[in-house]
Write a structure and sequence with these properties.
This is Esterase. InterPro entries: AB_hydrolase_fold (IPR029058), Esterase-like (IPR000801), Mycobacterial_A85_antigen (IPR050583), TPR-like_helical_dom_sf (IPR011990). It holds the Pfam family Esterase. Keywords: Signal. Helices cover 52% and strands 15% of the residues. The protein has two domains: 252 residues, Alpha/Beta hydrolase fold, catalytic domain (Rossmann fold); 131 residues, Tetratricopeptide repeat domain (Serine Threonine Protein Phosphatase 5, Tetratricopeptide repeat, Alpha Horseshoe). It has 389 residues and is an alpha/beta fold.
Length: 389
Protein backbone atom coordinates (compact mmCIF):
# COMPACT_ATOMS: atom_id res chain seq x y z
CA UNK A 1 0.00 0.00 0.00
CA UNK A 2 2.81 2.42 0.92
CA UNK A 3 4.60 1.67 -2.36
CA UNK A 4 1.40 2.39 -4.27
CA UNK A 5 0.94 5.72 -2.48
CA UNK A 6 4.57 6.64 -3.12
CA UNK A 7 4.20 5.83 -6.82
CA UNK A 8 1.03 7.93 -7.00
CA UNK A 9 2.79 10.84 -5.27
CA UNK A 10 5.68 10.71 -7.75
CA UNK A 11 3.29 10.45 -10.69
CA UNK A 12 1.20 13.37 -9.51
CA UNK A 13 4.32 15.44 -8.93
CA UNK A 14 5.72 14.70 -12.41
CA UNK A 15 2.47 15.45 -14.23
CA UNK A 16 1.70 18.52 -12.14
CA UNK A 17 5.11 20.17 -12.50
CA UNK A 18 5.52 19.55 -16.22
CA UNK A 19 2.00 20.57 -17.17
CA UNK A 20 1.32 23.60 -15.02
CA UNK A 21 4.53 25.36 -14.05
CA UNK A 22 5.09 28.89 -15.32
CA UNK A 23 8.67 30.19 -15.44
CA UNK A 24 8.97 33.96 -15.07
CA UNK A 25 11.74 36.52 -14.73
CA UNK A 26 10.95 39.24 -12.22
CA UNK A 27 12.64 42.62 -12.49
CA UNK A 28 13.18 43.96 -8.98
CA UNK A 29 13.90 47.62 -8.25
CA UNK A 30 14.58 46.83 -4.60
CA UNK A 31 17.32 44.38 -5.56
CA UNK A 32 18.32 46.05 -8.80
CA UNK A 33 18.37 42.56 -10.26
CA UNK A 34 16.28 39.95 -12.04
CA UNK A 35 14.97 36.96 -10.10
CA UNK A 36 13.69 33.70 -11.56
CA UNK A 37 10.30 32.44 -10.41
CA UNK A 38 8.58 29.08 -10.74
CA UNK A 39 4.81 29.36 -10.40
CA UNK A 40 2.53 26.34 -10.21
CA UNK A 41 -1.18 27.05 -10.68
CA UNK A 42 -4.00 24.75 -9.53
CA UNK A 43 -5.48 22.24 -11.93
CA UNK A 44 -8.18 23.85 -14.11
CA UNK A 45 -7.12 27.30 -12.90
CA UNK A 46 -9.30 29.99 -14.50
CA UNK A 47 -8.14 33.60 -14.24
CA UNK A 48 -11.71 34.81 -14.86
CA UNK A 49 -13.17 32.71 -12.04
CA UNK A 50 -14.07 34.05 -8.59
CA UNK A 51 -12.27 31.11 -6.94
CA UNK A 52 -9.41 32.16 -4.66
CA UNK A 53 -6.40 30.06 -3.68
CA UNK A 54 -3.90 30.13 -0.80
CA UNK A 55 -0.35 31.03 -1.79
CA UNK A 56 2.70 29.00 -0.74
CA UNK A 57 5.94 30.93 -1.17
CA UNK A 58 8.88 28.53 -1.35
CA UNK A 59 12.28 30.01 -0.60
CA UNK A 60 15.19 28.03 -2.04
CA UNK A 61 12.91 27.27 -4.95
CA UNK A 62 15.92 25.84 -6.77
CA UNK A 63 15.47 22.56 -4.88
CA UNK A 64 12.41 22.94 -2.60
CA UNK A 65 9.82 23.91 -5.22
CA UNK A 66 9.39 20.42 -6.71
CA UNK A 67 8.99 18.63 -3.33
CA UNK A 68 6.36 21.17 -2.28
CA UNK A 69 4.49 20.83 -5.58
CA UNK A 70 4.52 17.05 -5.28
CA UNK A 71 3.22 17.08 -1.73
CA UNK A 72 0.47 19.60 -2.54
CA UNK A 73 -0.60 17.52 -5.58
CA UNK A 74 -0.72 14.41 -3.39
CA UNK A 75 -2.76 16.00 -0.61
CA UNK A 76 -5.19 17.84 -2.88
CA UNK A 77 -5.84 14.60 -4.78
CA UNK A 78 -7.22 13.13 -1.54
CA UNK A 79 -8.95 16.40 -0.55
CA UNK A 80 -6.68 16.85 2.48
CA UNK A 81 -5.94 20.47 1.64
CA UNK A 82 -7.19 23.11 -0.81
CA UNK A 83 -5.54 23.62 -4.13
CA UNK A 84 -2.92 26.34 -3.89
CA UNK A 85 -0.77 28.67 -5.95
CA UNK A 86 2.86 27.69 -5.33
CA UNK A 87 5.59 30.24 -5.98
CA UNK A 88 9.19 29.04 -6.02
CA UNK A 89 11.84 31.72 -5.65
CA UNK A 90 15.12 30.65 -7.26
CA UNK A 91 17.97 32.03 -5.16
CA UNK A 92 21.08 30.18 -6.25
CA UNK A 93 24.30 32.01 -5.39
CA UNK A 94 22.31 35.00 -4.09
CA UNK A 95 21.08 32.94 -1.14
CA UNK A 96 23.93 34.05 1.12
CA UNK A 97 23.15 37.72 0.52
CA UNK A 98 19.38 37.17 0.73
CA UNK A 99 19.79 35.75 4.22
CA UNK A 100 22.24 38.43 5.43
CA UNK A 101 21.41 39.21 9.06
CA UNK A 102 22.46 40.98 12.20
CA UNK A 103 24.53 38.60 14.32
CA UNK A 104 22.88 39.79 17.55
CA UNK A 105 19.20 40.04 16.63
CA UNK A 106 19.19 37.51 13.77
CA UNK A 107 17.08 39.99 11.75
CA UNK A 108 17.73 40.91 8.10
CA UNK A 109 20.06 43.84 7.48
CA UNK A 110 21.66 45.42 4.39
CA UNK A 111 21.31 42.87 1.52
CA UNK A 112 18.93 40.82 3.65
CA UNK A 113 16.77 43.85 4.44
CA UNK A 114 16.49 44.70 0.73
CA UNK A 115 15.53 41.10 0.01
CA UNK A 116 12.87 41.35 2.73
CA UNK A 117 11.46 44.51 1.10
CA UNK A 118 11.54 42.78 -2.28
CA UNK A 119 9.23 40.07 -0.87
CA UNK A 120 6.83 42.42 0.95
CA UNK A 121 6.70 45.37 -1.45
CA UNK A 122 7.21 43.75 -4.86
CA UNK A 123 6.88 39.99 -5.16
CA UNK A 124 3.79 39.25 -3.06
CA UNK A 125 1.83 42.30 -4.34
CA UNK A 126 2.68 41.14 -7.86
CA UNK A 127 1.36 37.63 -7.15
CA UNK A 128 -1.82 39.05 -5.57
CA UNK A 129 -2.39 41.38 -8.53
CA UNK A 130 -1.87 38.81 -11.27
CA UNK A 131 -3.39 35.65 -9.77
CA UNK A 132 -6.55 34.69 -7.89
CA UNK A 133 -5.08 34.61 -4.41
CA UNK A 134 -6.74 34.35 -1.00
CA UNK A 135 -5.50 36.09 2.12
CA UNK A 136 -3.87 32.89 3.43
CA UNK A 137 -0.15 32.85 2.71
CA UNK A 138 2.39 30.16 3.67
CA UNK A 139 6.18 30.62 3.83
CA UNK A 140 8.53 27.62 3.47
CA UNK A 141 12.20 27.96 4.36
CA UNK A 142 15.17 25.62 4.91
CA UNK A 143 18.13 26.29 7.29
CA UNK A 144 19.25 29.92 6.61
CA UNK A 145 15.96 30.78 4.91
CA UNK A 146 14.19 29.06 7.80
CA UNK A 147 15.72 31.74 10.00
CA UNK A 148 14.83 34.46 7.49
CA UNK A 149 11.10 33.73 7.20
CA UNK A 150 10.65 34.37 10.92
CA UNK A 151 11.30 38.06 10.33
CA UNK A 152 7.87 38.35 8.72
CA UNK A 153 6.29 37.37 12.04
CA UNK A 154 7.58 40.48 13.78
CA UNK A 155 5.40 42.94 11.87
CA UNK A 156 2.07 44.09 13.36
CA UNK A 157 0.20 42.40 10.54
CA UNK A 158 2.29 39.38 9.48
CA UNK A 159 2.44 38.84 5.72
CA UNK A 160 2.28 35.06 6.15
CA UNK A 161 -0.23 33.16 8.26
CA UNK A 162 1.72 29.88 8.27
CA UNK A 163 5.47 29.24 8.65
CA UNK A 164 7.17 25.98 7.68
CA UNK A 165 10.63 25.96 9.28
CA UNK A 166 12.68 23.08 7.88
CA UNK A 167 15.68 22.64 10.17
CA UNK A 168 16.03 26.42 10.61
CA UNK A 169 19.47 27.87 11.29
CA UNK A 170 18.45 30.30 14.03
CA UNK A 171 20.72 33.31 14.29
CA UNK A 172 21.33 35.61 17.26
CA UNK A 173 18.19 36.24 19.30
CA UNK A 174 15.73 35.13 16.62
CA UNK A 175 14.32 32.25 18.68
CA UNK A 176 13.65 34.57 21.62
CA UNK A 177 12.21 37.22 19.29
CA UNK A 178 9.65 34.88 17.77
CA UNK A 179 8.62 33.28 21.08
CA UNK A 180 7.98 36.76 22.53
CA UNK A 181 6.08 37.82 19.41
CA UNK A 182 3.93 34.69 19.33
CA UNK A 183 2.99 35.20 22.97
CA UNK A 184 1.16 38.43 22.14
CA UNK A 185 -0.11 37.67 18.65
CA UNK A 186 -3.90 38.03 18.37
CA UNK A 187 -4.62 36.45 14.99
CA UNK A 188 -4.33 32.76 14.13
CA UNK A 189 -0.81 31.75 13.14
CA UNK A 190 0.43 28.29 12.17
CA UNK A 191 4.04 27.57 13.05
CA UNK A 192 5.78 24.31 12.15
CA UNK A 193 9.36 23.38 12.99
CA UNK A 194 11.35 20.20 12.43
CA UNK A 195 14.75 18.72 13.19
CA UNK A 196 16.21 15.20 13.35
CA UNK A 197 18.61 13.24 15.51
CA UNK A 198 20.98 13.25 12.52
CA UNK A 199 20.56 16.96 11.79
CA UNK A 200 23.55 19.33 11.69
CA UNK A 201 24.59 19.55 15.34
CA UNK A 202 24.72 23.38 15.83
CA UNK A 203 21.37 23.79 14.05
CA UNK A 204 19.77 21.01 16.08
CA UNK A 205 20.93 22.65 19.30
CA UNK A 206 19.32 25.95 18.31
CA UNK A 207 16.09 24.23 17.26
CA UNK A 208 15.81 22.28 20.52
CA UNK A 209 16.28 25.53 22.43
CA UNK A 210 13.67 27.29 20.29
CA UNK A 211 11.24 24.44 20.82
CA UNK A 212 11.55 24.78 24.60
CA UNK A 213 10.70 28.47 24.31
CA UNK A 214 7.77 27.93 21.94
CA UNK A 215 6.26 25.16 24.05
CA UNK A 216 5.94 27.67 26.87
CA UNK A 217 3.92 30.11 24.76
CA UNK A 218 0.36 30.24 26.11
CA UNK A 219 -1.64 31.71 23.27
CA UNK A 220 -4.73 30.11 21.71
CA UNK A 221 -4.07 32.01 18.47
CA UNK A 222 -0.84 30.03 17.98
CA UNK A 223 -1.06 26.63 16.30
CA UNK A 224 2.39 25.25 17.01
CA UNK A 225 3.63 21.91 15.65
CA UNK A 226 7.03 20.34 16.17
CA UNK A 227 8.66 17.18 14.86
CA UNK A 228 11.92 15.48 15.83
CA UNK A 229 12.62 12.77 13.25
CA UNK A 230 14.80 9.73 13.70
CA UNK A 231 17.43 8.73 11.13
CA UNK A 232 16.92 11.65 8.73
CA UNK A 233 19.68 14.03 7.69
CA UNK A 234 19.44 17.80 7.35
CA UNK A 235 18.26 17.22 3.77
CA UNK A 236 16.24 14.00 3.84
CA UNK A 237 13.97 15.33 6.59
CA UNK A 238 12.49 17.80 4.09
CA UNK A 239 10.04 15.45 2.34
CA UNK A 240 8.48 14.00 5.47
CA UNK A 241 8.37 17.40 7.14
CA UNK A 242 6.48 18.98 4.23
CA UNK A 243 3.89 16.22 4.47
CA UNK A 244 3.47 16.72 8.21
CA UNK A 245 3.42 20.52 7.98
CA UNK A 246 0.75 20.76 5.28
CA UNK A 247 -1.30 18.09 7.03
CA UNK A 248 -1.33 20.14 10.24
CA UNK A 249 -1.78 23.57 8.67
CA UNK A 250 -4.82 22.50 6.67
CA UNK A 251 -6.27 20.10 9.24
CA UNK A 252 -9.54 22.03 9.47
CA UNK A 253 -10.01 21.74 5.70
CA UNK A 254 -9.96 17.95 5.74
CA UNK A 255 -13.17 15.88 5.79
CA UNK A 256 -14.73 15.04 9.16
CA UNK A 257 -12.60 12.46 10.94
CA UNK A 258 -13.74 9.62 13.17
CA UNK A 259 -12.38 11.52 16.16
CA UNK A 260 -14.32 14.66 15.27
CA UNK A 261 -17.47 12.60 14.69
CA UNK A 262 -17.27 10.92 18.09
CA UNK A 263 -15.89 13.73 20.23
CA UNK A 264 -17.30 16.89 18.66
CA UNK A 265 -20.36 16.13 16.56
CA UNK A 266 -22.15 13.53 18.67
CA UNK A 267 -21.67 15.69 21.77
CA UNK A 268 -22.52 19.03 20.11
CA UNK A 269 -24.96 21.18 22.09
CA UNK A 270 -27.32 22.35 19.37
CA UNK A 271 -28.68 21.26 16.01
CA UNK A 272 -26.10 19.83 13.64
CA UNK A 273 -26.83 22.22 10.78
CA UNK A 274 -25.28 24.89 12.99
CA UNK A 275 -22.22 22.73 13.66
CA UNK A 276 -21.49 22.03 10.00
CA UNK A 277 -22.22 25.63 8.95
CA UNK A 278 -19.84 26.98 11.59
CA UNK A 279 -17.18 24.46 10.57
CA UNK A 280 -17.23 25.55 6.94
CA UNK A 281 -17.44 29.24 7.86
CA UNK A 282 -14.20 28.78 9.83
CA UNK A 283 -12.60 27.32 6.70
CA UNK A 284 -13.66 30.38 4.72
CA UNK A 285 -12.59 32.84 7.42
CA UNK A 286 -9.21 31.19 7.94
CA UNK A 287 -8.12 30.23 4.44
CA UNK A 288 -10.06 32.86 2.49
CA UNK A 289 -11.69 30.24 0.26
CA UNK A 290 -15.25 29.00 -0.14
CA UNK A 291 -15.60 25.25 0.20
CA UNK A 292 -19.11 23.83 -0.40
CA UNK A 293 -20.28 21.20 2.08
CA UNK A 294 -19.87 17.86 0.35
CA UNK A 295 -22.56 15.20 0.21
CA UNK A 296 -20.28 12.92 2.22
CA UNK A 297 -20.16 15.51 5.00
CA UNK A 298 -23.93 15.89 4.92
CA UNK A 299 -24.24 12.10 5.19
CA UNK A 300 -21.97 12.07 8.24
CA UNK A 301 -23.95 14.67 10.15
CA UNK A 302 -27.24 12.99 9.19
CA UNK A 303 -25.81 9.74 10.56
CA UNK A 304 -24.87 11.60 13.74
CA UNK A 305 -28.37 13.10 14.02
CA UNK A 306 -29.90 9.63 13.77
CA UNK A 307 -27.49 8.27 16.38
CA UNK A 308 -28.38 11.16 18.69
CA UNK A 309 -32.09 10.62 18.00
CA UNK A 310 -32.00 14.28 16.99
CA UNK A 311 -34.99 14.55 14.68
CA UNK A 312 -34.97 18.36 14.69
CA UNK A 313 -31.54 18.39 13.05
CA UNK A 314 -32.72 16.30 10.09
CA UNK A 315 -35.10 18.94 8.79
CA UNK A 316 -32.59 21.75 9.27
CA UNK A 317 -29.84 19.76 7.56
CA UNK A 318 -32.22 19.15 4.65
CA UNK A 319 -32.98 22.85 4.34
CA UNK A 320 -29.28 23.68 4.48
CA UNK A 321 -28.52 21.15 1.73
CA UNK A 322 -31.32 22.53 -0.45
CA UNK A 323 -30.09 26.07 0.07
CA UNK A 324 -26.60 25.06 -1.07
CA UNK A 325 -27.80 23.02 -4.07
CA UNK A 326 -31.55 22.83 -4.79
CA UNK A 327 -31.01 20.72 -7.93
CA UNK A 328 -29.87 17.57 -6.09
CA UNK A 329 -32.04 15.11 -4.22
CA UNK A 330 -30.34 14.71 -0.87
CA UNK A 331 -31.68 17.89 0.82
CA UNK A 332 -35.29 16.99 0.05
CA UNK A 333 -34.56 13.38 1.01
CA UNK A 334 -33.40 14.45 4.48
CA UNK A 335 -36.53 16.55 4.94
CA UNK A 336 -38.62 13.56 3.94
CA UNK A 337 -36.72 11.43 6.45
CA UNK A 338 -37.51 14.02 9.12
CA UNK A 339 -41.23 13.87 8.33
CA UNK A 340 -41.15 10.06 8.28
CA UNK A 341 -39.54 9.89 11.72
CA UNK A 342 -42.21 12.27 13.06
CA UNK A 343 -44.87 9.88 11.73
CA UNK A 344 -46.10 12.35 9.10
CA UNK A 345 -46.44 9.67 6.43
CA UNK A 346 -48.27 11.66 3.77
CA UNK A 347 -45.85 14.60 4.00
CA UNK A 348 -42.87 12.25 3.91
CA UNK A 349 -44.25 10.47 0.82
CA UNK A 350 -44.74 13.77 -1.02
CA UNK A 351 -41.22 14.87 -0.20
CA UNK A 352 -39.74 11.55 -1.34
CA UNK A 353 -41.71 11.84 -4.59
CA UNK A 354 -40.38 15.39 -5.03
CA UNK A 355 -36.84 14.06 -4.54
CA UNK A 356 -37.39 11.67 -7.45
CA UNK A 357 -37.60 14.66 -9.79
CA UNK A 358 -34.21 15.95 -8.67
CA UNK A 359 -30.70 14.81 -9.58
CA UNK A 360 -29.53 11.55 -8.06
CA UNK A 361 -26.34 11.61 -6.02
CA UNK A 362 -23.76 9.10 -4.88
CA UNK A 363 -25.67 8.33 -1.68
CA UNK A 364 -29.25 9.18 -2.63
CA UNK A 365 -30.30 7.49 -5.89
CA UNK A 366 -33.72 6.87 -7.39
CA UNK A 367 -33.84 3.21 -6.34
CA UNK A 368 -33.37 4.19 -2.70
CA UNK A 369 -36.05 6.87 -2.94
CA UNK A 370 -38.50 4.53 -4.74
CA UNK A 371 -38.08 1.95 -1.97
CA UNK A 372 -39.00 4.66 0.53
CA UNK A 373 -42.07 5.69 -1.50
CA UNK A 374 -43.24 2.09 -1.88
CA UNK A 375 -42.72 1.39 1.81
CA UNK A 376 -44.76 4.43 2.82
CA UNK A 377 -47.47 3.54 0.28
CA UNK A 378 -47.82 0.08 1.81
CA UNK A 379 -47.86 1.56 5.29
CA UNK A 380 -50.57 4.02 4.28
CA UNK A 381 -52.67 1.26 2.67
CA UNK A 382 -52.33 -0.92 5.77
CA UNK A 383 -53.42 1.91 8.03
CA UNK A 384 -56.42 2.59 5.85
CA UNK A 385 -57.36 -1.13 5.90
CA UNK A 386 -57.07 -1.21 9.68
CA UNK A 387 -59.29 1.84 9.95
CA UNK A 388 -61.88 0.19 7.68
CA UNK A 389 -61.98 -2.82 10.01
Amino acid sequence: MQKALLFLSILLCTVSISAQTIYEKFESRKLNATRDLKIRLPKNYDADSDLKYPVILVFDGDYLFEPVVGQVAFQTYFDKMPEAIIVGLVQGKERFYDSYHDEVTGLPIEFGARFYEFITAELMPYIDKNYNTSKFKVAVGHDLMGNFINAFLLKDDPLFKAYVNLSPDFKGQMAANISNRLTWLKEDIFYYMVTSDDDIAPLRGGILDANQKLQQVDNKALKYYYDDFTGDSHYTLVTGALSKALDKIFELYKPISDREFQEDILTYDGTLDTYISNRYQKIEDLFGIHKPISEDEFEKIVKAAIQRDDIASLEKIGKLANKQDPTTSYGTYYMALHAEKLGKTKKAKKLYEAALDLESTAHINKDLILNKVEGLTLATDDNESDSDN
